[in-house]
Amino acid sequence: MAYGEMQSGRCGIVLAGGDGRRLRPFIRRLAGYDLPKQYMSFIGTRSMLEHTWGRAERLIPAERLFTIVARDHLNHAEVQRQVGMRAAVTVVVQPANRETGPGILLPLMHLHKRYPDATVAVFPSDHFILEEGLFAAHVRAAFELVERAPEKIVFLAAEPAGPEPEYGYILPDHADVAWHPARSIKAFIEKPETRMAARFLKLGALWNTMVMVFRPETLIHLVRLSNPALHRSFQRIFNALGTARETPVVERIYRDIPSVNFSRDLLGAIDVYTRGQLSVVPMKGVFWSDWGSEQRIQSVLRHYGLHDRMHGVRQAAHGSVVSAPDAASMLAAGL
User: Fold this and answer.
1) CA distances from 332 to 17, 163, 252, 310, 325 (A)
2) SS3 of 191, please?
3) How would residue 177 be classed by pLDDT, with cut points 50, 70 and 90?
4) Model's pTM, two decimal places?
């Protein structure tokens, strides 16, 4: 089916293009070999990426869920196994990791070409979320707001457990619209030191999960305002998709573009007028953790009495990961 003939609707992007270098020594101790963290089963039978697909598919059909991976990830047999279970058209391979800005924009170009009228949710693949049904309800609420107010970009934010200097923060403002739990955004704060983080918590700041919902043209307009050069690069990619020029154009642009962090370099550059388009939905009742460090993973699993299960992770002969039952199942069983 040609690009323009495909129907629109709710779509998703799963971010799995990161390298996870900080966790490599930890993963090597657990599994016996190197593997980017999103493909790892720290506990349970599913990887972090597979859990992310499962959460997203509560809301979005698998054929509309696009996953961004890095080319060198495919050197791992376990990565090939996991992404090989997805429809090939939904797996977007970037030549190199250029941080979260390009990591969002490349799959967005593919998605926007196929589903030009879509509403899109973005899901990072390195999150631990316990109450998945409630999480899905919050994402659904964000979808509903954007579908009624397409100029909005809606972020989901977690209720903080304490000052965390490695997280980004969102400082909410007043209620956004009377019929919805979303609030306007006063400020984004990217990784404040601990003392400043504690001060922001007293002001009601939330942890920015980087889960967000938007219409593609709205986000593309924000990129055009905050980083015109990046916008021009990805417009060239968009124009080349589905043609013989697609691969060489993507290769050439990825050789030239710098790394761009979505939160720091794009959100941090928007002006006060554009900020009025941004809203946040507080994820009340959802335990959320970004598993970017060994300490955080160990801490969460100790909290739920699952820490000793990690040593059961082993490398199978074919290179995949075998581990204990899913954490959610264990918790449901009281383990």
Assistant:
1) 31, 29, 49, 18, 11
2) coil
3) confident
4) 0.89
Q: How many whole angstroms separate alpha carbon 222 and alpha carbon 188? A: 15
- Residues 313-324, buried b or exposed e (16+ Cβ, 10 A)? beeeeeebbebb
Sorting pLDDT into bands at 50, 70 and 90, what band is 274? low
Segment 222-248 shows an average pLDDT of: 96
User: Tens digit of pLDDT for each residue in 90-140?
Assistant: 999 999 999 999 999 999 999 999 999 999 999 999 999 999 999 999 999
User: How many residues are recorded in the chain?
Assistant: 335
Topology annotation, domain 9-330: Spore Coat Polysaccharide Biosynthesis Protein SpsA; Chain A (3.90.550)
d(CA 314, CA 110): 36
Contact 328, 320 (CB under 8 A): no
The domain segmentation of the chain, as residue ranges, is 9-330
**Residue 245 DSSP one-character state:** T
> In angstroms, rounded to a whole number, what is the distance separating the alpha carbons of residues 14 and 211?
10
Q: At what angle do helices 132-148 and 48-56 cross, to 10 degrees?
A: 50
Minimum mean pLDDT range among 102-116, 238-252, 304-318: 304-318
d(CA 235, CA 215): 16
d(CA 16, CA 37): 9
